[in-house]
Every structure is written in structure tokens, then in C-alpha cells.
Amino acid sequence: MTTTGADGRIPVLDIGPYLAGAPGAREELARHVARSCGDTGFLVFANHGIDQRLIDGCFDAARRFFALPEERKTALTVGALNIGYLPMGVQTIRTSRIHDNRKPNLNESFYIVRDRAPDDPDILAGKPFVGLNHVWMLRFAEVAAHPLRDATLIVSRGPFTVAGDIALMRRHAIAHVVAKNAGGQAAQAKLAAARALGLPVVMIDRPVLPLRRVVATPAEVMAWLHGTDRGV
């Protein structure tokens, strides 16, 4: 069930029997996980069945993220849900029973949680430390209620500039832009900024207008008004 890594310190737990449904494997694995978390504080799972290409891709994504400028990373700093970036030197672990540690950690981290749908019951119920693995930055023309927890709300009314929106997207480490198709030129800046930064844009189309009568002259308008129950 348990071996150690090459340096003899990090436990390697074989979860193959548990995944195969072997009798008693769940309890045995739980016992080793609890012991590893209680003494070493780290562990590695083996025989998990995860495609090695996915693992390599995760390490590559981590390398690219932590190589970003500090201001790009701190835009994603952990919030109330404990999801996001934790800078170096801001956390001090004092749970060890064998060492009275008073020095901050010399590592940086990025915390994620199990992927859930936005309408997951635990998310809707506001369960602590349960949320989505992404951060929203909302820009409204005025203060308004919204259903997204742990979101950054920016209240600002245009006109906006391409340079300003590029700076805003960089400051908040924006990865995708979601916009409504309001028509006109007032909101073009964010689309040009997204294009300059190579960001994908999700455009929400305007709803289809319902069928209605179209009139073209004042006489037709008056005839339509007198033929309705609008009290004219």
C-alpha cells in the first residue's frame, strides 16, 4: 500500500486497489492518508489511472503561470473561498508537533477545488470553501446585485479606451471576455483590447424581438392606438 519516494521521505500511496473496488481498500487507504497528513504532511498517489499527458500538461501550465509577472499573479490572490494564488512569504504553518515554526513559507501556490456547475446545491447554499475554479471581474455602469461570489466589481461608466481596457485586463489577469451584443460603438474598446491581447470573446446575442405590428405614418399610429385598449 505505502512506499516512499527516492529521498525516503514522501509517502507514495497505491490507490489502485481502492479504484478496483477491493474489499477493505477504502479504509486502508484512508488510514494511510490520515497518517501521512499527520506526520509528513505530503503524499503522492500511484496507480491512479490519470493520463500522463494530462499530468505533464498540468506541470507545464503551472510553470507558465508562476513565471508570470507578480502583478499578474496577485490579481488572482485567494479570496474568501480559498481559491486562487497565494504569494510567497504570506503563510506561516504552525501545525507541526515536532517543530516550533515561526518563519513564513518560501513557496507560492495556486489553490483549486473540485469542478462544479454554477447551480451546484453547495454553491447555491453558500457552503464555505465551495466555489468555481475561476474568478469573475464584473464592470457595471452602476452598483447592482449579482449572483457571483468572490467576484471583483468595478463600477465605471464609459466611454472607455482601448489602452485603458488593455491595462484593466492585464491588471486583473483576464483570460476570457464575456460581453453582450448591445450594438453601437460605445463598447468597442473592450473588444479591441481583447483582440490585442489574444483573448477569446464570448458574445451574448440580443434576444429575438417578438412579432409586432409595424407602422410608418402618423395616421397609421393613430389608427393603431384607437384600435387598442390603451385608453386613447
Tell me what you see in this structure:
There is one protein chain. By secondary structure, this protein is α/β, with parallel strands linked by helices. Among the domains are: 1-49, no CATH class; 158-204. It has helices at residues 16-19, 25-39, 52-66, 70-74, 121-124, 162-171, 188-197, 218-226, and strands spanning 2-4, 11-14, 44-46, 84-86, 109-111, 137-140, 152-155, 177-180, 201-204. The strands form four sheets. Strands 1-2-3 form a three-stranded mixed beta sheet. Strand 1 (2-4) and strand 2 (11-14) form a beta hairpin. Helix 6 (162-171) packs across helix 7 (188-197). The longest helix is centred in the first third of the chain and has 15 residues, at 25-39. The mean pLDDT is 83.
